[in-house]
Amino acid sequence: MSTQIKNHPLVNTTEPNLLEGTFKYSLPPLIKFDGPIVEYIDGKPVEFDTRSLLKRDIFITDTTFRDGQQARPPYSVEQMVKIYDMLSKLGGPNGVIRQTEFFLYTKNDREALDKCRDLGHKYPECTGWIRANKGDFRLVKEAGLKETGMLTSCSDFHIFQKLKFKDRKECIDAYCEVVEAAFEAGIRPRCHLEDITRSDIDGFVLPFVERLMKMSEQVPDGLKAKIRLCDTMGFGISYPGAELPRSIPKLIYKLNKECGVPGDRLEWHGHNDFHKVLINGATAWLYGCNALNATLFGIGERTGNPPLEGAIIEYISLKGDLNGIDTTMITAIAEYMQSIGVSIPENYPFVGKHFNTTRAGIHAGGLRQAEQIYNIFDTYKLLGRSPRVAITDKSGVDGISIWVNEYLGLKGENRISKIKVHRVAQWVMDQYEIEGRLSTMTDEELEAKVKEYMPDFCLKYNGSLKNLK
Amino acid sequence: MNIEEVNSRVKKVIAQVLEKNASDIGDNANFVTDLGASSIQSIRLVAGFEEEFNIEMDEDKSLQVQTVSGAVAFISSYLQAG
């Protein structure tokens, strides 16, 4: 590609262009495309229409109780019911969180499933997860589930080295026998193509999926096999031009367009071994796969799965609409999960204690002048979390001023000037410069100093740490 | 209050906040480059002026004042208006 120097004259203005079409603040920033995406497949350019995302019924499926529980001690029945109930509220009445899957092997698993269904929620629909074993359909049948996931591993690492099949044909025959059993039991099989990003796509995956589609022609729509693309080791690549089997665009295209699996029967299940987990899932959405499988806070085997709350924000960013999602439930779920011992790092996006906390004084100065400068979106409206400042030696008077105003519950024009907080600010600076302190100020310490140095304001505005949520 | 008295009381506040002798503070001294005021000391100076003269000044405008004579003029404008 040759370099073509162009002139780019300054567009001078006295009115700021805040790009409000994309950065609405009342929503997460919108993801907009200015044309189709072109991917070369088998040497030929193929266009993917990005506008179709707005029309397609993309959705999230949850595996907090399956993959999520493989990475931690099991949840109690009561905890699962509470989490399920909150997932339902988060995903809303239109089923943005469409399904969630349950183990069926223990009494605890089945009791949790029954109690979740007793809540009567339409979404997320409860599905099962079993090994590729014909006998296990009895469990699915007894549980009264309409759909179950089943292991149909497809890399030769699994086929030969784990499952010890003699050859690929023996493997496919065995898998198809189980799929046939699912059809006979009146249960929709969701075939989990484990390790697909390390598989022989032309030599095994496509022939297997073709056979599944052929078998599905014989059954009603509600039973036709679904395909879950399991990026078991996180090898999937979102970049255009990447090779199979790691290319997510090519994998989706081949299954969707060459094998004829409709987008609503394709599901992406990723892992985070290479820090690509959420963008890989969203890439699957983009290229024609409708379901993104996720877990709350990404808790899953090893490095985890796509974080469900991240997928929710990505969904809104792509769709430009909440579609019934109650984003404030993200905060409620995080608080509940922490109350039962789940650890969430302080800098974890959207829910960590300090996800929207500013430390640097120069950033706090910006935040004090206009919240939007250093807050990603209206986190108070969408998550019930106002932007915060953490007070250290770098916070400056601006940071302390924000803290004091938040503590006093003052907004907009009612906020007091930073001149009024000078004694508290000086005390803070003395802690670091004279006393040699190295740690962040706690809210309790600051509250004590505000009460000491600004008693009239505390009395007038009834300052409280509860205001700092 | 005449301008000399304002000047004298302004220098008293500066001397307290910046720990200097009032007699060493020149009328045209710059708070930052000549008197070494840090950002927090600048805030404390404004707070000190407000207390000394019992006035409430615009935060942004008051922090833009850079010199002793500028502060005297700025404060005088509030005293005259009040």
Overview of the structural elements:
With 469 residues, chain A is α/β, with parallel strands linked by helices. Chain A folds into two domains: 37-339, TIM Barrel; 357-468, no CATH class. Chain A is built from 18 helices and twelve strands. Chain A has helices at residues 52-55, 67-70, 77-91, 107-118, 137-143, 156-162, 168-184, 201-216, 248-258, 277-286, 308-319, 328-339, 361-369, 379-383, 396-408, 422-433, 443-453, 455-461; strands at 37-41, 44-48, 59-62, 97-103, 125-130, 147-151, 188-194, 226-230, 266-269, 291-294, 357-358, 388-389. Chain A has an eight-stranded parallel beta barrel with strand order 3-4-5-6-7-8-9-10, surrounded by six helices. A two-stranded antiparallel ribbon of chain A has the order 1-2. Chain A is globular. The mean pLDDT of chain A is 94. Chain B is mostly helical. In chain B, 62% of the residues lie in helices and 0% in strands. Chain B is built from four helices and no strands. The relative contact order of chain B is 0.19. Classes of the chains: A alpha/beta (469), B mainly alpha (82). The interface between A and B is small, with 10 and 10 residues.
Number of strands of chain B: 0
What's the helical proportion of residues of chain B?
Answer: 55-70%
Record field, number of beta strands of chain A: 12
Please give the order of strands in the largest beta sheet of chain A.
3-4-5-6-7-8-9-10
Which residues of chain A sit in consecutive blocks of at least 5 with pLDDT less than 50? none
Radius of gyration of chain A, in angstroms, nearest whole number? 26 Å
In CATH, the topology of the largest domain in chain A is named TIM Barrel
Number of domains of chain A: 2
Quick one: CATH superfamily of the largest domain in chain A? Aldolase class I
- Series of H and E elements of chain B: HHHH
Proportion of residues in helical segments of chain A: 25-40%
For CATH, the homologous superfamily of chain B is named as: ACP-like
Main CATH class of chain B: Mainly Alpha
Can you write the helix and strand succession of chain A as a string?
EEHEHHEHEHEHHEHEHEHEHHEHHEHHHH
